[in-house]
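May I ask you to review the protein record following this short note?
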Amino acid sequence: MKKRYILILFGILFISACTNDITRFNDETKRASEIPPGPLFSNAVKSMSDGLASASVNVNIFRHFVNHWAQAIIQEEAQYDYITRSIHNAWWTRMYRDVLNDLKESARIITNDATLNPTQKANQLAMVDIMQVYAYNILITTFGDVPYTQALDDKILFPVYDDAKTINDDLMRRLADDITKLNTAAPGFTSSEDILFHGSVSKWISFANSLQIRMAMTIADVDNAGAKAAFEKANPNAINSTANDAFIKYFSATPNNNPLYDQLVLAGRTDYIAAKDLMDVLNNYADPRKPGFFGVNNAGEYVGGIMGVPSDYPKMSKPSARVAAPDAPNVLIDYVEMEFYRAEAKERGYTVTGSAESHYNNAVKASIIYWGGTNTDADIYLLRPDVAYTTATGGWKQKIGFQKWIALYNRPFEGWLEVRRLDFPQLTLPVNAISGFPNRLKYPGNEQQLNGTNYTNASAKIGGDKSETKLFWDIF
């Protein structure tokens, strides 16, 4: 027996002596050493879209912020509680860790690819940067000052927070530069990699110009001259028909279905309902979009619940089957939004063809048709004295803001941006709201713990890390 053990030990020692270098065991032979840039790009775009489309109480509760959806049972989110479930942490993490890091890595690989056609490379890098601008714009219009110049650097563990206005100015500069680099003479990403426009460079050009308009109009109250110049430069090439709308087309099969299908159908939730604030407007105005927005309750009626108050679910209207469909698209920017901006630009004295009324009418009509109405439905609606631009209540901010609030249904983040920016409609607070109207999300808790000094400095600079603190562009 002893001889047997000696032989085994001798064999082990012999093998060890012949294997001086064991680093080869660190090689991952079954996993790619580098991911291609296209899938990284498409994954970033999908992750961003999923977050914007979601109604999960762990991801996105902006439908409650704009009083479009209420909740029948759980009221915390409807009452502005986004801390308990760390929604602010999740939103920050999605944009920084998931979206921006994927885009950064995609750009690195493209830059280092010596085999790629130079014009195609320029197109791809411009498209990646456009989506980086989109993501950073979401961050600064959600939180305010955020890490930017030192962000996404593995060597900097505690990045400083940059001034949001300075970030915005640089993002608009980057976007203008990206537009000049897009060239329709060469392709960008492949149709399968480009899940937004499926390889159409011309649509990327209109999308980038439209994003520039959104960003310009966001700062119009604090930098009218800069907003005017940016709007007028971008407007001729921005989205000018529904054919150029920017949206993610989801599929019926999981996991590439619209997130709302998971949350409204597969999860079997008996909680999400129409908010009374929006439903009363739809009923009182005989709005033809109502069946596209919501279904009827068990009695065949359209009824909304009070924000912050438990409701009897069977007696309430729920989001429509159209909204909950697995293949329902998620809009990022569209013709409706652009026409409202053009109406506003006209009122601000910017150079734009047509009247404020004509652009307002175009926006409302396109929204009605998108949601299943007809041209006749839209014409009848626009003839109502409380809808017609010349007779509707209030000044241009109120008229445009009110109709835009309706038209941005199921686009909750953009709806929240516009309600804050235009200050109309003036929404009622939920019953037992834990704060005033949220003008921003508080910084994530892990930023306070891990990047404390820079967090403290940023919080003090913006006026306090509170939901009610207004961001630099929101001065009224």
Q: What stands out?
A: The longest strand covers residues 330-333. Confidence is low (pLDDT under 50) at residues 1-18.
